[in-house]
Design brief:
By secondary structure, the protein is of the alpha+beta class. Among the domains are: 213 residues, no CATH class; 160 residues, no CATH class. The chain is 38% helix and 24% strand. The chain is built from 21 helices and 20 strands. The strands form two sheets. It has an 18-stranded antiparallel sheet, sandwiched between helices. Strand 2 and strand 3 form a beta hairpin. The chain is globular, with a radius of gyration of 28 Å. The two termini are 53 Å apart.
Length: 549
């Protein structure tokens, strides 16, 4: 039964993944304006990059297709998803919207190609279900757990579920969450209402959503941060801190593109006017090559820099009504908010380098050759800086942790797990120029992760055959992550991230399809080996039928 359920989930994901675009207006018309999450796929481009025939060639697909517990309708769907009656040329969309009380409505929408085939498909899911017609919408209740409604053009699936985390259960093997049952009548009424959703209550009038849909992208995601905050009752107590002023009109959009050799992610964090004005006014200088070149290492595994104007911290605290509280708390420590913000110039960078997981025997501290960690903070007003630093050192006591070394000069503060590393950084003589440096500069935020180096350093001689095989596949697949952004334009902060792969010539979606299937096959072999070992342990030893006195 569990195998069958997993197969159904995979079928739904495949159907979702191979549906193409509708017009952005039609997509937005059937989505409430305050939906918490909206996921959309431009699978016309996805199918160009990864044809369904490539998916069918994987061992994972073959194993699902060969599963005897898979029902006949599932096998037909797996072979040809168009038999569902869904128009795979006109799109599929999923969203989450708050229901009544603690419930949420989880919705999948799309276009109908053949109403009769679509009805047959859904009746095969629940042969006992009887279709009814309400407001010219055909409605089926499936196993008293979900509702599907459709007309000649569109369909809507709805699951209403209790959102209280304490009521979530798990399957016995803890692989998939079991959704707490919600109100089927509410799901039914909600499903029907979406077909006649007033335009001014939908996302059709949101210019930010329209802009998202206009962008070139394979996958698009919309998050309503304001709705997400408001649907969590436990956060209501934060209203006294005027959090609403911070999250009002807050939205996030994500566009994912699978290109040759890399996966691209473009993000926009939309802010309300008051918060955006603060972000724009106090945006910091661009990350510079100097923040990288002075790191005394040629083996940087991770680097992040974020530049800002410290005065912006005070403005945000004022917006939240927390500036007085912050001054009171800091006053107990011996300094003020003005001294904290004035002590720094808003240039912050963090690096991890020289990874060495071959820790010597008896080593316990972070300074025992694991790696080099460095946090660098630019100095603002020297007098304020010295006061804050001396106060912090006072809290650390006369015998501070030897793995935390705080060293400074007139321009910068360096915190490192090795004093020599901090001193070398402050001397600024390394002249380090990694090939990726130019890719993370030129914006207020920059990040670099050497995935290949990190994976390589996690390998060990004690790996078994299957672990080693997974390790080698991952080493041959992942390269690095480069992310930049923090630029303030059009009421949003923009960020761009690239996940680069070792093969720079093949489309990343094709590579992912192959990589996931390789890992699946290795895990399948591991599970088979573990099962065989367990069977041998459970088998009784042979009986000695010939006894020699």
């Amino acid at each position: 039964m569990r195998k069958s359920f997993r197969a159904i989930i995979v079928l739904i994901l495949i159907t979702f993944a191979f549906a193409s675009c509708k017009s952005k207006l039609h997509v937005a018309k059937m989505v409430p304006a305050d939906a918490v999450f909206v996921g959309y796929m431009n699978t016309k481009s996805l199918l160009d990059k990864l044809p369904y025939s490539d998916v069918k060639a994987t061992q994972m697909y073959k194993d699902i297709a060969a599963d005897t517990s898979l029902p006949d309708w599932g096998k037909k769907m797996l072979e040809n998803p168009e038999q569902s009656g869904i128009d795979l040329e006109k799109g599929l969309l999923a969203f989450v919207h708050k229901g009544s009380g603690n419930s949420v409505n989880m919705v999948v929408e799309g276009a109908v190609k053949s109403a009769s085939d679509f009805e047959k498909f859904n009746k095969s899911l629940d042969p006992s279900a009887q279709a009814t017609k309400e407001k010219n919408i055909n409605v089926l209740v499936l196993k008293n757990q979900s509702v599907v409604g459709w007309n000649d053009k569109d369909f809507v699936y709805v699951i209403n579920s209790d959102a209280d985390p304490s009521e979530f259960e798990n399957f016995s093997d803890s692989t998939l969450p079991k959704l707490p049952k919600g109100n089927i009548e509410e799901a039914k009424a909600y499903c029907i209402s979406l077909f006649s959703l007033p335009e001014d209550s939908s996302l059709a009038g949101d210019k930010r959503f329209a802009k998202l849909m206009d962008e070139k992208g394979d996958v698009k995601v919309w998050l309503n941060n304001e709705s997400m905050f408001n649907m969590i009752p436990q956060l209501g107590m934060l209203s006294m801190l005027k959090i609403n002023d911070l999250i009002k009109d807050a939205r996030s959009t994500y566009v994912i593109n699978f290109e040759n050799g890399k996966i691209e992610l473009d993000q926009k964090a939309y802010l309300n006017k008051q918060l955006f004005d603060i972000a724009k006014k106090y945006s910091g200088d661009n990350v510079s090559a100097d923040q990288i070149s002075r790191i005394p290492s040629n083996n940087i595994a991770a680097f992040m820099a974020f530049n800002y104007k410290p005065e912006g911290i005070k403005e945000v605290l004022k917006l939240l009504g927390m500036d007085g509280m912050a001054n009171m708390y800091l006053g107990q420590m011996g300094f003020t908010l003005d001294e904290i913000t004035g002590a720094q110039n808003g240039k912050l960078s963090v690096s991890v380098s020289d990874l060495d997981l071959s820790k010597p025997e008896g080593a316990t501290g972070m300074n025992d050759s694991d790696f080099n960690v460095l946090v660098a903070v630019g100095v603002g007003d020297k007098a304020k800086f010295d006061k804050v630093l001396n106060t912090i050192k006072g809290f650390m006591g006369t015998e501070p942790d030897s793995s935390i070394n705080i060293i400074s000069n007139e321009k910068e503060l360096a915190i490192a797990n090795h004093a020599s590393f901090a001193n070398s950084y402050l001397e600024g003589k390394s002249g380090n120029k990694p090939e990726w440096a130019s890719a993370v500069t030129g914006h207020p935020f920059g990040l670099y992760l050497d995935l290949n180096q990190i994976i390589k350093k996690t390998g060990s001689k004690s790996m078994d055959e299957n672990e080693k095989a997974m390790f080698e596949k991952s080493m041959a697949f992942w390269k690095n992550v480069i992310s930049t952004g923090g630029d303030a334009n059009d009421n949003a902060l923009s960020y761009k991230t690239e996940v680069n792969l070792m093969d720079g010539n093949t489309n990343s979606l094709k590579q992912l399809n192959t990589y996931i299937d390789q890992i699946y096959q290795i895990d399948k072999k591991r599970r088979a080996s573990s099962s065989a070992s367990l069977d041998s342990l459970l088998t009784a030893p042979p009986v000695d039928t010939v006894h020699t006195p």
